[in-house]
UniProtKB/TrEMBL annotation:
One of its GO terms (biological process) is proteolysis. Its EC number is 3.4.23.-. The chain crosses the membrane at residues 6-23, 30-50. Signal peptide: none annotated. Keywords: Hydrolase, Membrane, Protease, Transmembrane, Transmembrane helix. One of its GO terms (molecular function) is aspartic-type endopeptidase activity. This is TIGR02281 family clan AA aspartic protease. Coiled coil: none annotated. InterPro entries: Aspartic_peptidase_AS, Clan_AA_Asp_peptidase_C, Peptidase_aspartic_dom_sf, Retropepsin-like_bacterial. The keyword Membrane applies. It comes from the Bacteria. Pfam families: gag-asp_proteas.
Length: 195
């Protein structure tokens, strides 16, 4: 029974007190007590049924949401670097990788060097994708990262790509950032809001 159920016991307690005060003196005490026990059982059964229905509604609503909603418990705050960008170190497949946050990138983009650091062989990948950048079109190799961890929060099977051209710093794109409810800019800070 939830906290709300405890508040429903107040009317029942008043009913019980009234029944004990005004019961017919000619009746046997045992009959009165057994009647009150039946009433208590019915009342508690009704409360449990209401609590179960309410709990089922919440569970059903939660189960229809993406699983990642329950992973993030706290906001994550990044400070703006001197170059104007926001950087974050994220553990990828067990290895630390420094990313620049790029909310405009659909997926996580790894430099060839970072791909090697996490155990991928950039020379053996299929660069079947294309992406337009400020420096022109580059080839991309789609990959799936086993896991990424930021601030104690882990996301598995993250869509990503390895950049076929020159890339100084890997990009933390939306395939990972969707883990959060949203992004806010506050002064020189970027805040990823928890779900």
């Amino acid at each position: 029974m939830g906290d709300a159920g405890a508040t429903y016991l107040i009317p029942f307690t008043a009913l019980l007190a009234a029944a004990l005060l005004f019961y017919d003196a000619g009746r046997r005490f045992a009959a009165t007590v057994s009647g009150l026990i039946v009433m208590l059982g019915l009342y508690l059964g009704a409360l449990l049924a209401v609590d179960n229905l309410a709990g089922r509604d919440v569970t059903d609503a939660r189960s229809s949401l993406p699983r990642v909603r329950s992973l993030v418990a706290t906001d994550v705050t990044l400070r703006r670097a001197f170059d104007g960008h926001f950087y974050s170190e994220v553990e990828v497949n067990g290895a630390p990788v420094r990313f620049v946050v790029d909310t405009g990138a659909t997926v996580v983009i790894l430099s060839r060097e970072d791909a090697r650091r996490i155990g991928l062989d950039p020379d053996a990948l299929d660069y079947t994708g294309r992406a337009r950048t400020a420096n022109g079109e580059v080839r991309m190799a789609p990959v799936t990262l086993d896991e990424m961890t930021l601030a104690g929060v882990t996301m598995r099977n993250v869509r990503a790509a390895v950049n076929g051209g020159a890339l100084d710093t890997s990009l933390l794109g939306m395939s990972f950032l969707r883990l959060f409810e949203g992004v806010e800019m506050r002064d020189n800070r970027m805040v990823f809001r928890a779900r």
